[in-house]
Amino acid sequence: GENVEQHPSTLSVQEGDSAVIKCTYSDSASNYFPWYKQELGKGPQLIIDIRSNVGEKKDQRIAVTLNKTAKHFSLHITETQPEDSAVYFCAPRGTGTALIFGKGTTLSVSS
Amino acid sequence: KAGVTQTPRYLIKTRGQQVTLSCSPISGHRSVSWYQQTPGQGLQFLFEYFSETQRNKGNFPGRFSGRQFSNSRSEMNVSTLELGDSALYLCASSLERVNTGELFFGEGSRLTVL
Q1: Which of A41, A43, A95 sits opposite B106 (nearest CB)?
Q2: Three-class SS state of A1
Q3: Residues B84-105: pLDDT tens digits?
Q4: Chain B CB within 8 Å of residue A92 CB
Q5: How would you list the strands of the sheet with A105-110, edge to edge?
């Protein structure tokens, strides 16, 4: 079946540092690649997404890069701030019948 | 524009009971999907409803069921509750099918089974 792996599972950085989270998927038909952020006590919220015809997308301090050949995409957060502390999920979307999320990455930004 | 609303937010049940959770999607959204979130298994897809029909289903036993009404509101039901059903149940709505774009999540219903 489809497989989604997300690394690392936890990430601790100092405020101002960069953070990178990688998501690897197995479904070669995947064509939509979102990242969600979940803060404590809330539901996940889309922070950035990319479609398969684009290699990179940036929105202020966050960016997503896609390598379809290697079947992975990454979330990049620059100049991290304490409010970036949350759990981040990838959820590559293909034509399959089930949605599969990565296991999540807990990002801690200390000031 | 109102977001996705889930009720109740918290509930406690005992083994063997059944529970019904409700989800009101964003106005105009036709798809509602449900997820179980636990510390061990993460976010797992339960099912998707679109235009009152179940379109996709995750790998959960038949004790988990759902439905969608003509106004797109959805309910999910878990019968014969087990301790392992304790989890945060999230619903998400989207304009079209779940595999096409952004999901908007509610804040979840936290179920504790004793």
Answers
A1: A43
A2: coil
A3: 999 999 999 998 877 778 899 9
A4: no
A5: A10-14, A105-110, A86-90, A32-38, A45-51
